[in-house]
Amino acid sequence: MKSLSERPVNPVVGVSVSHESAAAHVTGTALYTDDLIVRNSNVLHAWPVQAPHAHARIVGLRTEPALEVPGVVRVLTASDVPGVNDAGIKHDEPLFPSEVMFYGHAVCWVLGESLEAARLGAEAVEVDYETLPSLITVEEAIAAESFQGNRPTVARGEPDKALENAAHRFSGEFQFSGQEHFYLETHASFAYIDEAGQVFVQCSTQHPSETQEIVAHVLNLSSHDVTVQCLRMGGGFGGKEMQPHGWAAIAALGATLTGRPVRLRLNRTQDITMSGKRHPFHARWEVGFDDDGRLQALKATLTSDGGWSLDLSEPVLQRALCHIDNAYYIPNIEVNGRIAKTNKTSQTAFRGFGGPQGMLVIEDLLGRCAPLLGLDPSELRRRNFYEPGQSTPYGQPVRHAERLQAVWQSLTDRADIARRREEIAKFNATHPNVKRALGMTPVKFGISFNLTAFNQAGALVHVYKDGSVLINHGGTEMGQGLHTKMRQVAATALGVPLSSVRLAPTRTDKVPNTSATAASSGADLNGGAIKNACEQISSRLAEVAARKLNIHPDDVRFDDGKVTGIGFHDSAMTFAELARDAYFQRVSLWAAGYYRTEGLHWDSSRMQGEPFKYFSYGAALAEVEVDRFTGAYRQLRTDIVHDVGDSLSPMIDVGQIEGGFVQGAGWLTLEDLRWDASEGPNRGRITTQSASTYKLPSFSEMPEEFNVHLFERATESGVVYGSKAVGEPPLMLAFSVREALREAVAAFGPGNCEVDLASPATPEAVFWAIERVSAPSSSSSSSGDLVASAPRSAQ
Amino acid sequence: MMDGIKVTVNGKVRDCSGTNPHTRLLDWLRDEGLTGSKEGCAEGECGACAVLVARPDGADRSRWTSVNACLPPALAFDGQEIITAEGLGNVSDACTPEDLHPVQREMADRGGSQCGYCTPGFVCSMAAEYYRPERSPAQEDRETGTAVVGEEHATDHECGPNGFDLHALSGNLCRCTGYRPIRDAAYALEAPLGSDPLLDRQNRPAPAAKHTRISGEAEFVRPHSLDEVHQTLRDSSDVKLVAGATDLGVEVNLRHSRPPLVLAIDRLEELRGLTFDADSIEIGAALTLSEVERALDGRIPLLGHLFPQFASRLIRNAATFGGNLSTGSPIGDSAPVFLALDARVALSSTDGEREVPLSEYYTGYRQSVRKPHEMLRAIRIPLPLAESTAFYKIAKRRFDDISSVSVAIALQLSDGVVRSARIGLGGVAATPIRALATEEALIGQPWTSDTVAAAAVVMAGEGTPIDDMRASSLYRSAMLRQALLRFHAENAEELEAAK
To answer: Rounded to whole angstroms, how far apart are CA atoms A384 and A441?
Structure first.
């Protein structure tokens, strides 16, 4: 077998190509789940009855009035469920609840001939609630000791002793917000009974196999009775990893009960009020440094706000604990994690999957402590980088740790930092009301699912007699360019031009038992499986060609649709001719490919092992300008150096880096999820439940100058064609923006003062931070007590 | 089918008869199988639904205008011409690069799409700017590739070297790309070829407005004349006037309002005048903000400050000042500006017309002195204008956000003394208000730091701001204070620069 990372001559991977659906995107002809409705007839539309309480028992449910509304066909309730009334895999998420667990929880669903009929039907349903006490904020949950799931600890060394002996010791508390995915395409499912009597579900899902499993268990069917297809998603970002299942099951239930196609598409408000988000976290920490600013010890407790059910909260918390070190060696450490149970949406996967939250804690800590240690923050960071030979707190050697310094140095040179620091100092000296600053932060992110079993994938590759190739794999396309990369991998492995390879939509009857397209692993896993399938085929074809060319099969070369022997420079035959010959010689032209990531082990009870195949590295430098009058700011320039191994598809990878960065900056600066935490009648209601109140980055938030550089000579052995995952790590490059804002705020103060900045660092938050540093008393905050106190009107 | 409702989409006439008055253009298009336009938010914030409409550009020409399809009723497009992303290129299954529209080609080649869901909307917004007649290559700042026009802090005037105004895309959101490749695509566009049929279409008048009249459970009527509007307002108690539908659309989509009678007034010539005379400028209520912006061409600097900060280009292409003032939201951005301009509103009805100072117009939350049978016909701005003006919008996001606080300031200074002061505030009370106490603290005083510092304290006490998801009340009050300090600081810089 060929090496996984080795590239042939003339590879199609590594070439910059447009997204494989780009022409369909720009002409509006790319189809998404909800675009299929108009291609079907007799479709029913679903609308939820959403509870107006954060926590309540349902004591009466009368659906008859809905049935009197013209156009209403059926109301789906718990009594309609033939199988298991559960939308998840942990059996803590009833599909039709008897107890309302969050404001907006769907009690039942109305099916109508039109969306309007279904909506009016839902308005007519009568529900009696007995309200119950609720917990909305994470502080309330901590006070009430309301936790769920396991409580992992990552530990090494003797943190207590090391803290006692540390030359400098600080402690603090930090609470930061979650994030709404705001994929432009809201959740959508479309279910019908197909020609063969199978339940067929078109679904915007990152995890078709699990959608299939849950539809099956709700309907009391076997998996082979249900097929789930995902054409493509209009964005996922983790929000469609676990969340779509229940809604797919509602649509499928409606289809089986009525015999008609059922469409369930959440509108934006329903999507925001019902679907899970990035976990907000609360952190309490104590840290010790030596006189040189080297980390000696860290003790921390991270409390994530899991919302009403577990969903993916446990693995998200695990990843947070496994990333609190970010790029830094911490010899003595103890980090405890716990998951608050609150009456909110059930928080879920979101690009980074807890990694960003863990890393934000240490980056905030370093940003706050640097002035107290008398060090430049970027120097404090660099000084603590992992060195080759060191291991993470969970016992994994840090492979390629030297790349941290190399990436950092490359960025320092490319971004012309020394000159710009001088310019900024000059600018700030002459601008009392505007300050500029740089922020520079590293990323080290572990690649692979923490749970070892998920690190496998399958693919199906067909070569037809005419030489055309059709590939199928278990991964889903949500805009990240996975399908583009997979076509490039297949074209490379078979030695055919890209145009010869067509990719068929992801569906569970083609490749079964797939993992979610998540954890940045889509290209690593599915690429491995596709390459494996292609190589099975090409080794068979090589034998056919060898016989014809009268050479050894090892000497056959496949390149750009031509098949030659080693040393034969004139084209002996085309790939299509060879495929036809193979058919007549009764040689199989298709193969199922399989891949499992080698060398992983993880003991989640001890939180020790080597859960990651490798680490992705990167660093970013952000320059911001902050206005004294309002706290408003602009991102003037961002420079990034990021390690994607040998890129499979450079334009796609740069797109992931830029997009991840801006999305991360959105989380840290602009996107401000609010729940009504008052005791009023709307307690528990999300107050930012639309695009007019929840603001994501627009053109005005992109860095005005944006330079992304892919780290060179970065081959990752043991990964498909030497590449690295790219989906999640760049999000965390955005810490640089937050740290630049912190520096700019400091520039309004007396110098060397600690800056406490809320997250998200909205203009208002920045304004209050400036007020604090410019208030006369602020310079005395060197007591080591860094408790945050940003004014916030609502949680 | 002489009487049917016909809409021309991508050059093909489609029958829109039988469509419910509350069916939005977007849903109708999608039901017709044109699923390129998407719903991302249903409130005109994300632009995934954007399409092009041939709107009048004077009497003889038309202009491809980008609008959100998720807000207006489909019936409002009776007789009109629409282009969607599907209609821009020469679309077929096996699409070659040559089949794509230049805008589509740049977007595809430069990685402007990732998930692709927002892309058709971006393409339409970008195409409107591509065809904008005034777009021409900028001269300055070749070396950075961006030409920043206007005052130092205002990247509110970001233009590419090809004259592409980035604000054309301010109403389109992308969650995937981080925008850089989209900006690159926009800035790479050349001038349209002379043979381009869509360019040529702009040389002919826009389709005339049809006098659509649909009755049923709900009625949709496009009246012939202002008199007919007055009469309907007199005769019926529950009439919803609609121009750009940027407010009504949100009511319909998010709050499920289903008004029984909708009167479309956006094409009534009586409401579309912009007249200048010696002592005032009158703006017709049904001109879109984009139309007013073009027609004024900077003649009212304070409005010039407002335009780029008012929602997005997609919204400004449909929204009207008449609508913004009539809905009377305390966070509508035009009211503070018109308060500072000392504007008056003309209220017309079967009784005739009366003028009311805007400062006396609002009586409570979304309430005014306008009687149920009256309508806002025009806004009159007295001349001469105060010379020192500013508009400050405090929001989380610079493009297309809703104000936490907005402040419009118009001062007349002479010999270092404040001769007159008018300050309009939004977001700090149940209605837009004048900062009367602050004005009083300024008028007659020397324009000095001391005066401003004292007045800023008064300013911070104006209104009764609340805490909500946009901002805390403390921040709102602080922003009032800061606005005056900032105005003074900027004014001082200007005076310095003028020396």
So the answer is: 12
Residues 237-296 of A with CB under 8 A from B: 237, 267-269
Among left, alpha and beta (phi > 0; psi -120 to 50; other), residue A389 is: left
User: Nearest C-alpha of chain A: how many angstroms from B419?
Assistant: 25
Query: Are the C-beta atoms of residues A199 and A227 closer than 8 Å to each other?
Result: yes
Res B79 pLDDT > 60: yes
Q: Give SS3 for B338.
A: helix
Among the options A93, A728, A739, A743, which is catalytic?
A: A728
When comparing pLDDT for B155 and B171, which is higher?
Answer: B171
Residue in the structure block whose two tokens are 């079964």: A512
Q: Is the dihedral of CA A126, A131, A135, A137 positive or negative?
A: positive
Cβ of A605: how many Cβ atoms within 10 Å?
7
B458-487 pLDDT, tens digit per residue, is: 999 999 999 999 999 999 999 999 999 999
Beta carbons of B77 and B25 less than 8 angstroms apart = yes
| Interatomic CA distance for residues A474 and A514, integer angstroms | 5
Is A728 an active-site residue? yes
- CB-CB neighbours of A598 under 10 Å: 10
Q: Which residues of A249-286 are buried (b: 16+ CB within 10 A; e: fewer)?
A: bbbbbbbbbbebbbbbbbbbbbbbbbbbbbbbbbbbbb
d(CA A150, CA A321): 13
Exposed e or buried b for every residue in B360-385, given b needs 16+ CB within 10 A? ebbeeeeebebeebbbbbbbbbeeeb
Q: Are strands B280-284 and B274-277 parallel, antiparallel or unpaired?
A: antiparallel
- CA–CA separation, A694 vs A684, rounded Å? 16
Q: How far apart are CA B39 and CA B26, in angstroms?
A: 8
DSSP A668: I
> Is-contact B232 B225, C-beta < 8 A?
no
Distance, in Å, from the CA atom of A91 to the CA atom of A94, rounded to the nearest integer, reads 7
Provide, as residue numbers in chain B, all residues whose Cβ is less than 8 Å from the Cβ of A27.
36, 85-86, 88-89, 91, 95, 100, 104, 120
Closest approach of chain B CAs to the CA of A530, in angstroms?
22
Q: Which residues of B407-432 are buried (b: 16+ CB within 10 A; e: fewer)?
A: bbbbbbbeeeebeebbbbbbbbbbbb
Evaluate if residue B1 carries a pLDDT over 90. Answer: no
How many CA atoms lie less than 13 Å away from A607 in the CB half-sphere? 24
In angstroms, the separation between the Cα of residue B185 and the nearest Cα of chain A is: 12
pLDDT at residue A511 in the model: 97
Q: ∠ at Cα A405 (A401, A409), nearest 5°? A: 155
Q: What is the pLDDT of residues B124-138, one digit of tens each?
A: 999 999 999 999 986
Q: What φ, ψ does residue A520 adopt, rounded to 5°?
A: 60, 10
Residue B333 to residue B316: CA distance in whole angstroms: 12
Reported as a single tens digit per residue, the pLDDT across B356-389 is 999 999 999 999 999 999 999 999 999 999 999 9
Give dist(CA A101, CA A310) in Å, integer.
12
Pairing mode, if any, of strands B417-426 and B239-242? unpaired
In the three-class reduction of DSSP (H, G, I as helix; E, B as strand; rest coil), residue B449 is classed as helix
pLDDT at B251 over 90: yes
How far, in Å, CA of A365 to CA of A132, rounded?
A: 38
User: Residue A229 has which token pair?
Assistant: 């297809």
Name B147's bridge partners.
B159
Whether the CB-CB separation of A360 and A759 falls below 8 Å is answered with yes
Contact indicator for A384, A601 with CB cutoff of 8 Å:
no
Q: Is pLDDT above 70 for B48?
A: yes
- Whether residue A234 lies within 8 A of chain B, CB to CB, comes out as yes
